[in-house]
Design a protein that fits this description.
binds phosphoenolpyruvate, elongated, TIM Barrel, 4-stranded antiparallel beta sheet, 11 helices, 2 domains, binds manganese (II) ion, alpha/beta, 34% helix, Alpha-Beta Plaits
């Protein structure tokens, strides 16, 4: 913590800041410059609001030095985290592709999707059984029936399965069928859900909230980790900006930013990120080139008939084309596929 006092700050104002720093557990180092007095607070205190200091009498500015998250910070594990699931490793040298329909709609649909994505090289089958739809009148997912089909399809084609948990009450059910528990963008700050997932032993795929800063996102990961589950995989899925051409704006720079700030693996979801099938391939290529540890891609055997997110779902042949491109891009950035 660094507090810069205003020019001419009184001794009483300086002392008030020192007292507050000491009360929070900081050791205080005072430097008196020609114009400004600077107070450096050294210590483990992570839970404070720098604005509390910024608004004190006589203070010019106040800056936090340590990140507010600890377990999710790069410093906690400088070598990076590899989330292991059997033979699959997320965060290792291989780029891991997770693909499948937005929602599980029928046994036939998810079987057809699984067959094609597995053959093209995907390692994890995606498919929602509980869907966070913007309208309550839209298809809400098949629930347990959908999870059963997802598991069956994943097992038949040698894939792992990822599916969304929208509410704490769904955790036991989704965990009984899926290998990875997905937290949707709308739930990134559902702290009760994050805490419950922290008590599970399955990896959590944590999507970035629609308008979440990277710091808020890493603090959401911290909630899960703070309960003991360190298997968190982040997923950049686009944020809301003033641009309307695409559904969201994919923050490609969030990938290197997260790599710098955190040890957690990070995926990109160009399907929700762009909302358009014709934009998924270029953005997927960009994400891998930028250092993403994997991708989450919507693929539907017949996107024009999809019950959710058809416009952004790839046809299987487009997914094959993408995988072919990634086989060239991954080695160019020191990865395998
Ligand atoms: C999804 O993956 O189908 C989904 C609903 O994603 P998001 O939470 O990113 O909107
Ligand atoms: Mn979707």
């Amino acid at each position: 913590m660094l507090v810069v006092m205003q020019e001419g700050a009184t001794e009483a104002q300086i002392q008030a800041v020192i007292d507050r720093l000491v009360a929070l557990g900081f050791a205080v180092h005072r430097s008196t410059g020609v114009v400004h007095t600077i107070l450096g607070g050294i210590g483990p205190a992570a839970h404070f609001d720098p604005t509390e200091f910024a608004v004190m009498e006589g203070v010019k500015e106040a800056h936090r030095i340590m990140s507010p998250y600890k377990l999710a910070s790069r410093h906690f594990r400088p070598e990076g985290t590899r989330v292991r699931l059997g033979e699959l490793e997320i965060g290792g040298p291989a780029v891991v592709v997770m693909a499948g329909p937005c929602s599980v709609e029928s046994r036939e649909q998810v079987m057809a999707a699984a067959e094609r994505v597995a053959r093209a090289g995907a390692r994890v089958l995606r498919g929602g059984a509980f869907k966070p739809r913007t309208s309550p009148h839209s298809f809400q997912g098949l629930g347990e029936e959908g999870l059963r089909y997802l598991r069956e399809a994943a097992d038949r084609y040698g894939l792992l399965a990822v599916s969304e948990v929208m509410d704490s009450s769904q955790i036991p059910l989704v965990a009984a069928y899926a290998d990875i528990l997905q937290v949707g963008a709308r739930n990134m700050q559902n702290y009760a859900l994050l805490r419950e997932l922290g008590a599970q032993n399955k990896p959590v795929l944590l999507k970035r909230g629609l308008s979440a800063t990277v710091e808020e996102w890493l603090l959401a990961a911290e909630y899960v980790m703070n309960e003991g589950n360190y298997h968190v995989i982040l997923c950049e899925r686009g944020i809301r900006t003033f641009e309307t051409y695409t559904r969201n704006t994919v923050d490609i720079s969030a990938i290197p930013v997260v790599k710098k700030l955190s040890h957690l693996p990070i995926l990109a979801d160009p399907s929700h990120g762009t909302g358009r099938r014709d934009m998924v391939l270029p953005v997927a290529r960009a994400a891998v080139a930028a250092g993403a540890d994997g991708l989450l891609i919507e693929v539907h055997p017949e996107p024009d008939r999809a019950l959710s997110d058809g416009a952004q779902s790839l046809r299987p042949d487009q997914f094959e084309e993408l995988m072919g491109q990634l086989r060239m891009i991954a080695p160019a950035v020191g990865r395998t596929l």
